[in-house]
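Students often ask why we bother encoding 3D structure as a string. The short answer is that it lets us treat folding as translation between two languages. Here is a chain of 385 residues written in the first language.
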Amino acid sequence: MRKTDGDTGQCKRCPNAGSILLRGYDSYCKDCFVVYVNHKFCSTIGKMRAVRHGDKVLIAFSGGISSSAMVHLVRESIERAGSQRRLVFQPTVFLILEKSVSSCYGSEEDCVSTAARFCQNYDLPFAWCHLDEYFNESPQFYTKVEDFQRSGRQAQLKELFKKVNSLTAKEDLLKRTRTELLIRVAKLMDHRKIFVGSNSSRIAADLLTFVAQGRGSQLPFEIGFSDTHDPDVTIIRPMREILQDEVEKYVEVKEIEVLEAFAQPEVMSRLSSIGTLTQDFLSSLQKDFPGTVPTVFRTGDKLTTAVKQDGEKCSFCKMPLDSTVIPPSSALQARLYSSALSTLGKSASQEVIERFVVSKPEKDFSLIDCSHLCYGCSLTIKDCT
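And here it is in the second language, the structure alphabet:
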């Protein structure tokens, strides 16, 4: 039987009264809830044996509550002296400044100084760079706030994003450039692991979003515990077992500072992109049916891909290329054939249609290598002017 927030009952782990209600029926006192979240975080990393003693780990920090909670959990796990679940590695918190293409309230200087102070409170090293360092093979990053300077390639970055017509394509473009930049920086800093703050609610929404964007073959890399598409750097999702609601309650209970400089104004409709629409749909279902997100999330864990990881890579997102050989009667082939008919018309010959289907995207940018694109990236590029 589901309970209400005012009727939390007894904590399910101890005799104390519960003050936090999860999933409509699980009550926890504050102490047990903190232990519960910490256990989820550490066991997720521990059971996969992803991090070894002394590993250097780059902690991707965006200023949001999920990445803020992740920084706090990392600090807690390192300080847990004498515990079997203590994690012993060398973290560096890293921030990518996206002000030139996003709409956060704070200025770039405010974002850097606020993030640096936040990390200093947890005694964690901090570094940062501009998103437009994506255009450099060896990105320049900084470790001191006083080293702050405006990037000289913001105009180039704005030019790239100005070409994007839809918010869906813009979000995808931002994710690809951000991920690639993180990997390059990690290599320069000699870090072979990257922690990102994607929680299970975010991953469930991403699963449906990526399928809708034609990235189904990349799902094991995009939503799995670890993303190994780069042979030298592994992206790890240690928050993947924790729901968004649990993250929010953890931030509240532990009084983790919410960084106002990174807040995003609510100016766009929930229907503006595939991603926001999917997230809103899952969130509304989760309120009435608490098993929605876990069901989608667990289903994603069972998905595999036939695309070879050691094969040819997409020139933009660097994921295994799914469009080198298109099997007959496949969903991709049917989609391309339908697009060819819509573009060329029914009067086009079969030979012309087949040539259209196997051709590469006509659009090209000096800012992006379009020589070998996966199907998902080809859709993003097609949505650009």
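Translate back mentally: Confidence is low (pLDDT under 50) at residues 357-364. Keep this in mind for the problem set.
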